[in-house]
Amino acid sequence: MTLEHKINRLRVFIMLRLFIVTFLLFMTQVVFETDNLIFYYIIAFVCFLSIFYLGWLVTGRHLLLLTWTQIVVDILLETILVLYTDGIDSSFATIYVLSIISAGILIVPWASFAVAAFCSFLFSVIATAIHWGMIPKILLVAGPVASAAHDPLYLFYAIYVRITIFVVVAVLTNYLTGTILKLEEKIRIQKRLAFLGDVTSSIAHEIRNPLMAISSSVEVLAHDLKDLVKGETRQLMNAVVDESERLKRVFSQMLNYSKIEDLKLQETSVQKLLDHVLLVVSHDKNLSREVTIQKQYPDKQIQIEIDAEQMTDVFSNLIRNAYEAMPTGGKLHIRVRENRNLVEVVIGDTGHGMDKRTLKSLFLPFKTTKSSGTGLGLAQVQKIVALHEGKIHVSSQKGKGTQVTLYLKKESD
Ligand code: ADP
Ligand code: MG
Questions:
Q1: What is the CATH number of the domain that holds 296?
Q2: How many CB atoms lie within 10 A of CB 269?
Q3: Which of 141, 206, 379, 381 could lock 365 by a disulfide, CB 3.0 to 4.6 Å apart?
Q4: What is the Å distance from ligand 2's center to 282 Cα?
Q5: Which residue is closest in CA terms to ligand 1's atom 21?
Q6: What domain count does the chain have?
Q7: How far is the CA of 307 from the centre of ligand 2 (A)?
Q8: DSSP state of 137
Q9: Could you say which of 132, 151, 185 is where a domain stops?
Q10: Whether residue 235 sits in one domain with residue 145
Q11: Residue 332 CB less than 6 A away from ligand 1
């Protein structure tokens, strides 16, 4: 969340509190026909506090402390209100939920639990103290009922009901704010990806033609000068050829990535597509020859509606990654399975696996751990799978291997 976003939220929170307190306490005066000065004092105090908070907010400093201060002061004010309105039977007892919700929204989702626990504690103490007559009667102004008349079972019941409400509100706040935060993060990443896609495609288009010219000239030059140059110069020349190859690869992947837009769906056999990709990849001279392939296919061909060309890119990227994770050989396991209206394609390897950090940023463009990688393969996979309304799941253990599972719909809607 940006600083501006945080400041805006706090500003709304401060104004909202002022409105709620003023409205609620005026209404209380009207409904109960009391003329209790304490309500006016609280309104005046909240006005003063709001000015103080707004002043603090303008400085833009220690905003977390400001938020906690507001929540704690609110809880104390709520406690005073509950106390003055005969604690155990107070119609204000549930006002604590406002602080529980605010903490979850303004701080972190779990803060609502901490605040719920604190409020439960305060309410229990007040209710018990009033019940045992430990608070002077003069302080209990608005309460219509003499608490001492209630028995301990009633006290227990009243506390139990309030604590249950606080906990339920905390659970709901924690769940909802957690879900909203995750959604916000998803939207942020998607915006970033869309922006990156635009930039990438315009850069790639600008540079592609001169790059192709440079790269083919370098290849011709290298070929012609092969016998004339020796030693370090030859090494340098090879490096130039290799790097220009790599640049070409990066650019064609960048263009591929930005080109993915619509699908040309056609009935395709998943097994046939996988076999075609396996044939091509297993004959790539840059990949290990020591990989054994284990296939686990159902007896009949599974036909699904996909864009065959783009899905070839998906399988090719995943199988290549598996090969690249096993430079000294290993087992590549391909399994296809039907599961109601889904088709599961699992591509597993016994390669070097990856750590948690790599796993977390797996689908971000340009994230690669390979010296000659582009980091665009899985970004492309994710984009194509999402267009097919499919899902992708990756699990990996460092040193043991990786398993990628694709869930594809059998028929598109
Ligand atoms: P690239 O292959 O060009 O690095 P990718 O987007 O295909 O880009 O993959 C991103 C990163 O994810 C790789 O650099 C690698 O660290 C990790 N990765 C992907 N697949 C595997 C795998 N099967 N085993 C281990 N690491 C993998
Ligand atoms: Mg790759």
A1: 3.30.565.10
A2: 16
A3: 379
A4: 15
A5: 321
A6: 3
A7: 20
A8: G
A9: 185
A10: no
A11: no
